[in-house]
Each structure stands twice: as C-alpha cells, then as structure tokens.
Amino acid sequence: MLMPVSVLQNWVKEFDKWCSKGPRAPTVHVFHGLNTEKQRKKMISAVKEKGGVLLTSYGTLVSQIELFSADDLSFDYIILDEGHKIVSLITHH
After folding, report:
1. Which residues is 30 bridged to in the sheet?
2. How high is the pLDDT of residue 23?
3. Beta partners for 9?
C-alpha cells in the first residue's frame, strides 16, 4: 500500500485492529525509515519469504524503485491512499 507518510502509522493501527487475530492474519511490513541498503534488502527478503502487506510512501517507492522492480518481487495488489500522486508517464513526480 502506498500512502502519505503522515498516515502510515494510522494504517499500521488499522491492520492491527482488524487483521491481527487468527492464524491467517497477514504480516504487516513497514518499508519506511530504513536507513541502510542492508535494512532495505532485508525487508524485501522478508516480504518475498512471508508475503503479507507492505506499507510504504510514494516517495519511498520512487527512491527505491530498483528494489521494488526486481524480477523476483511481485505483488497481487497495489493500493494507493495517495491517488493525487498518480501522474502520466511524461510527467515527473
């Protein structure tokens, strides 16, 4: 899920509130504030291994596009809580 940084923790709380119970509860990964390349790669490895929900900001996606566009990383859904950030291919961020 892509969202403004200002609501990231709200989404963490919502997932905890509605989806944290039971054996089929998704793992929620927060991909934000990871300062080193090692931390970022470790998070992506955890997502590949465990699946679940990945929460991040549009800015983080853009700045780490190489990691997110790796051939062995795929997502079933991408949900935007930042619809105003969708731009045409010829427009820059």
Report:
1. 55
2. 79
3. none
